[in-house]
Amino acid sequence: MAPVVGNATDVDTVNMACKLANDANGIVHIIYVIEVPREHPVDTEQHESTARGEEILDEMEALAKLSKCTAEAELLQARKAGLAIVHEAVDKQVDAIVLGTTYKHSYGAFTLGETIPYVLQHAPCRVIIMRLGTNGREQ
Predict the structure, then answer these.
(1) Which of 36, 85, 93, 98 has the least CB density, counted as fewest CB within 10 Å?
(2) For 47-84, how does the pLDDT look when each residue is reduced to its tens digit (9 = 90+)?
(3) How many whole angstroms separate alpha carbon 88 and alpha carbon 82?
(4) DSSP string, the chain
């Protein structure tokens, strides 16, 4: 499974997932999660976010096709991305989740945010994390 978010890590995330899937004759499930604020029902249409998500998924499906990788893309809406990623991993019985992240810091300290720690704690499968270097390259 390859969750994408619309940043520089998406290409590396999908490429890595495709390499793993091709080695195992598997399918890459590419997902984009729209986080819906609590003040709105979770199934509320998010027109701008949906359009952006569909555009990103189309780009990632094209990338997977170039890698001769079988891929399925899905747009999800949830309160929290981490929960949606884990739920999809369970539902689709995936062997691994490939997560990409950038170098983020909060109050001067490196952080993984909320999603990655949640997935690491709750995923029923392997979790592979790829971080772009501080200069924007994968490390």
Answers:
(1) 93
(2) 999 999 999 999 999 999 999 999 999 999 999 999 99
(3) 10
(4) -EEE-SSTTHHHHHHHHHHHHHHTT--EEEEEEEEPPTTS-TT---HHHHHHHHHHHHHHHHHHHHTT--EEEEEEEES-HHHHHHHHHHHHT-SEEEEEE--EEETTEEE-TTHHHHHHHH-SSEEEEEEB-TTSSB-
- Please state which CATH class domain 2-131 belongs to: alpha beta
Enter the pTM of the model.
Answer: 0.89
User: Domains of the chain: which residue ranges?
Assistant: 2-131
Q: Cα separation of 130 and 132, whole Å?
A: 7
Judge whether residue 37 has pLDDT over 60: yes
